[in-house]
Amino acid sequence: MANSFATSLSRATEKRGMLQSSSTMTEASFPRKRPSLVRKVLFRTCRHVSIQLKTGAEHINACDHGPERGIILLAIISDIHANLPALEVVLEAVEASGSEAVVHAGDVVGYNSFPNEVIGLLKSRRIRSIRGNHDRAVVSGNTSWFNPYAARAVEWTREQLTETSLEYLRSLPPHLVMETGEATIRIVHGSPRDEDEYVFPQQASPLLLDEGECDVLVMGHTHVPFVLRTARGLVVNAGSVGQPRDGDPRAAWVLLDPEEPWAEVQRVTYDVTSVYDEVLRVGLPEMLADRLLVGR
């Protein structure tokens, strides 16, 4: 197992070099400014959220100001992977940011050891989520396309979940569409083409916005955060709350103003050691604990 993990780290380091190069170009083309206090105050007047199911996706009218223009500030999180301490710290940062809405881009469970607790927290905070490939695998029991470490985590999670938690995972839609006053936001786990597709920074392009029929496309799945601003709109990957893979072990999330348009990757430190210890205590693979420490 140690040799296998060392090999994966070596490959991850090579990939990290490519990702850093791509990320640098993306950030250089993107203005790093924060939404004004006025915009935050206007968003706080938004209280009504209506949800309508259409063609397998949840469509949300995210803000209804009446005569006011729909101005919203969203927190985008993804790939929590049953990491409760990381999620709790991220939600504290979200609250401090002035955002009043949080959306999750899939993979609630898998890899880590707090599946029921994470589901309970998402439900209590009324955080909208779509499904990820690990959520689907836990529901179906099919791990034929997973590596042995991920498959073991799926099996362990299936043994731990309450019926209420399992029903929650069954209820998650494959994607989510949010309508603001000025923008259409599509949230997918992989890509608009395939919910299992990996889109790394070097593959991101404006064509994804056309395929998603949206102004802002939010993705997860890769555990590598980035923001790409184009003339067509924004392509965003929120990275991972619970198992980052860009060489930074801090939990990642994205603060998004879709009407500016503006987005920025945020990082927060959490107690990684406590999660590492818990992963080992419950008998999950050591490799899953080790990668939390290095963020790969």
Principal-axes geometry comes out as globular
**Count of all domains:** 1
| Cα distance spanning the termini | 16 Å
Mean pLDDT: 82
Radius of gyration: 18 Å
Strand order of the largest sheet: 1-2-6-7-8-10-9
CATH architecture title:
4-Layer Sandwich
Question: Secondary-structure blueprint of this entry?
Answer:
Layout (H helix, E strand, L loop, with lengths): L1 H27 L8 H8 L5 E5 L2 E5 L12 E4 L6 H14 L3 E4 L10 H10 L3 E2 L3 H8 L7 H13 L2 H9 L4 E4 L4 E4 L19 H6 L3 E4 L6 E4 L4 E4 L13 E7 L4 E7 L3 H10 L4 H9 L2
Parallel strand pairs: 2-6, 3-4, 4-5, 7-8, 8-10
Antiparallel strand pairs: 1-2, 3-11, 6-7, 9-10, 11-12
Helix pairs in contact: 5-6, 9-10
Protein model, in words:
- This protein is α/β, with parallel strands linked by helices and 296 residues long.
- The protein has one domain: Purple Acid Phosphatase, chain A, domain 2 (4-Layer Sandwich).
- The chain is 39% helix and 18% strand.
- It is built from ten helices and twelve strands.
- Strands 1-2-6-7-8-10-9 form a seven-stranded mixed sheet. A five-stranded mixed sheet has the order 5-4-3-11-12.
- A hairpin with a 4-residue loop joins strand 11 and strand 12.
- Helix 5 packs across helix 6.
- The longest helix has 27 residues.
- It is globular.
- 47% of the residues are buried.
- About 22% of the residues have low confidence.
